[in-house]
Amino acid sequence: MIKMKKIWLTFLTAFLLAVAMSSSALAAGWLPMSDVALGGITLEMTQDAVENIYGQPTKSTDRGILRYDGCHHVVWQYGDSFVIDFADGYVDSIKTFGINGIKTPAGIHVASAEIDILNTYGEPWLRNSNGRHLIYWYHTEKDRKLFIDVLYGRVASIVVAYE
Q1: What SS3 string covers the chain?
Q2: Mind listing the pLDDT tens digit of every residue in the chain (163 residues)?
Q3: Are 155 and 147 in contact (CB under 8 A)?
Q4: What pTM does this model have?
Q5: Distance between CA atoms of residues 108 and 130, nearest Å
């Protein structure tokens, strides 16, 4: 009976350790959906909602129906460093690449220090480098992603998009 208790206790300990390890591995790079936005704009917002916040864009480009998703895309640009892509009238991606006051809900913006990204969001789901740029990938459920491009230890651009 005592031997069976020891075997059961060993099995239970190993199982709980495995669950704890897999949970922490899965949690790396996951963000709540409320953190995946830029400048108050979230994916799936309508063009009207964006216009109510920012007004008419500086520039609007009609890209037509794109083959990769079959949606009609229109790109709005505000100033020279804030771009919103709409697919069939809904926000499909958001990008900022200049010092313009646009930030994530957690306060990360272009020129934030790389350490601020890690202190704010923790380890990314994926870290990718092309030699000069380092891209931090964070994601949520529903295939929403936050990509943060770092150059020389500072945020160079931020993108919110789908997979």
Answers
A1: CHHHHHHHHHHHHHHHHHHHHHHHHHHCCECCHHHCEECCEECCCEHHHHHHHHCCCCEEEEEEECCCCCCEEEEEEECCCEEEEEECCEEEEEEECCCCCCECCCCCECCCEHHHHHHHHCCCCEEEECCCEEEEEEECHHHEEEEEEEECCEEEEEEEEEC
A2: 554 444 444 443 433 333 333 334 346 789 998 899 999 999 999 999 999 999 999 999 999 999 888 999 999 999 999 999 999 999 999 999 999 999 999 999 999 999 999 999 999 999 999 888 999 999 988 788 999 999 999 999 999 998 7
A3: no
A4: 0.82
A5: 22
Q: Position of tokens 């990204």?
A: 117
